[in-house]
Amino acid sequence: MPVVVNLDVMLARRKVRSKELAEAIGITESNLSLLKSGKVKGVRFATLAAICRYLDCTPGDILDYTPSDDDLRAGGEE
């Protein structure tokens, strides 16, 4: 997948545990874990905003993009 989630890196930089972040932004630890591992197909902007506010960062600090030819087919459609 061309979009990479670097949330674990930001947590380490800010010395914040996943449990602390999950409680602060109101999501479950399991959902946060899925997000950290990149196993989700999407994230709500409100959740992303809450993460960024708590970690004092921007979405670009958490999400990265690596171009791929597959990007031309939105949602993996053929």
Automatic annotation (TrEMBL):
SMART domains documented for this protein: HTH_XRE (SM00530)
Every HTH cro/C1-type domain range: 19-62
Database matches in InterPro entries: Cro/C1-type_HTH, Lambda_DNA-bd_dom_sf
Name of the featured protein: Transcriptional regulator
Superkingdom of the organism of origin: Bacteria
